[in-house]
UniProtKB/TrEMBL annotation:
This is 3-hydroxybutyryl-CoA dehydrogenase. Belongs to the 3-hydroxyacyl-CoA dehydrogenase family. Keywords: NAD, Oxidoreductase. The keyword Oxidoreductase applies. It comes from Rhizobium lusitanum. It comes from the Bacteria. NAD(+) binds at G11, A12, G13, Q14, M15, G16, D34, E93, K98, S120, N144, K275. One of its GO terms (molecular function) is NAD+ binding. Residues 188-283 form the 3-hydroxyacyl-CoA dehydrogenase C-terminal domain. NCBIfam families: PRK05808.1, PRK07530.1. The keyword NAD applies. Residues 6-184 form the 3-hydroxyacyl-CoA dehydrogenase NAD binding domain. GO terms for biological process: fatty acid metabolic process. The record marks H141 as: Important for catalytic activity.
């Protein structure tokens, strides 16, 4: 445990739930906020399911699972975040959504509370400017699935205090994660490298070089990736993938980051990957079936 005791999570999606899961397992009290109570209920059920998986595989005990769950609360009332020491925003990858959240939450948080974002790509300095506490704001970028992935990127904004950075480092270390420090450039390190690879896989599909199955098999067995790039895109969420490519394209002004038109089309169709039931694969049956 670090000097922070209570963690607030904004957004009960796949990342918010993963961060709540590992924080509660490390002994923190956790409060999750989302817009709808249904979202929170399904988020808590996901956390319970993932904790149960860890019990089955012998990674944790049933007592620890129960104790972790008892440390997590959730509500759709922002005022319930008034007592947290660190709030981690893990809402949709859209700058206007995040700015709106900061405007609502800053007057509620304790003045000394730290605020972090799990953004995959957006400028930490620019997001900090939408808060009342740029010196107590930074990027804490977890990887998906949070309970399994070892890495967390830490990103300072121009105004981030050293004490904020140290507190974040202490918190992440207490979760038994490994830290890399990235400078505040579009998409930081992991996504600067990973997302153009995924985008290229979508161009490979778009140009008819291979089918979904051929591309994923090629990268799984030919490059030893644990998931094919199209399977991974579906896992991350195609809306998130597109937002990251747009940030890279706009922020670095280089045509090599142009989002593939097929990615745009899938997002426009509402085919967002696993979370919406369909993306490069259709997940509505017993086994995922390629959609192209
Ligand atoms: C977009 C961004 O901003 C940044 C990002 O996050 S980019 C995405 C980064 N993530 C990746 O690249 C993930 C790549 N994929 C993988 O590493 C693996 O496919 C995977 C770990 C997700 C699944 O591994 P797998 O071997 O195919 O499946 P599976 O056997 O079900 O899972 C392996 C273990 O992880 C556990 N696991 C998988 N998902 C889990 C979850 N959500 N919660 C808890 N445990 C989970 C399983 O229980 C299993 O544990 P045991 O070994 O103890 O049995
Ligand atoms: N997916 C990934 O692999 C990774 C994602 N990230 C980043 O983490 C963040 C979350 O991503 P992810 O969990 O995948 O996304 P999800 O789409 O799974 O979850 C986002 C959640 O935020 C909620 N939300 C939207 N607006 C608000 C609001 N105003 N207040 C509170 N909650 C809100 C959404 O609710 P609703 O559905 O009702 O809109 C949803 O529950 C993004 O910034 C993303 O870039 C970082 C690392 C990896």
């Amino acid at each position: 445990m670090s000097s922070l005791k209570t963690i607030g999570i904004i957004g009960a999606g796949q990342m918010g739930c993963g961060i709540a899961h590992v924080s509660a397992m490390a002994g923190y009290k956790v409060h999750i906020y989302d817009l709808s109570q249904d979202r929170i209920e399904s988020g808590l059920a996901t956390i319970n399911g993932n904790l149960a998986r860890q019990v089955t595989s012998g990674k944790t005990s049933d007592e620890d699972r129960k104790a972790a769950l008892a440390r997590i609360t959730g509500s759709n009332d922002l005022n319930d975040l008034a007592q947290v020491d660190l709030a981690i925003e893990a809402a949709t990858e859209d700058e206007s959504v995040k700015r709106k959240i900061y405007a609502q939450i800053c007057p509620i948080l304790k003045p000394e509370a730290l605020l972090a974002t799990n953004t995959s790509s957006l400028s930490i300095t620019r997001l900090a400017s939408a808060t009342d506490r740029p010196e107590r704001f930074m990027g804490i970028h977890f990887m998906n699935p949070v309970p399994v992935m070892k890495l967390v990127e830490l990103v300072r904004g121009i105004a981030t205090d050293e004490s904020t950075f140290s507190a974040a480092r202490e918190y992440v270390t207490s979760l038994e994660k490994t830290i890399t420090v990235a400078e505040d450039f579009p998409a930081f390190i992991v996504n600067r490298i990973l997302l153009p690879m995924i985008n290229e896989a979508i161009y490979t599909l778009y140009e008819g070089v291979g089918t979904v199955d051929a591309i994923d098999t090629a990268m799984r067995l030919g490059a030893n990736h644990p998931m094919g790039p199209l399977q991974l895109a579906d896992f991350i969420g195609l809306d998130t993938c597109l937002s990251i490519m747009q940030v890279l394209h706009d922020g670095l002004a280089d045509s090599k980051y142009r989002p593939c038109p097929l990615l745009v089309k899938y997002v426009e169709a509402g085919w967002l990957g696993r979370k919406s039931g369909r993306g490069f694969y259709d997940y509505r049956g017993e086994v995922p079936v390629p959609t192209r």
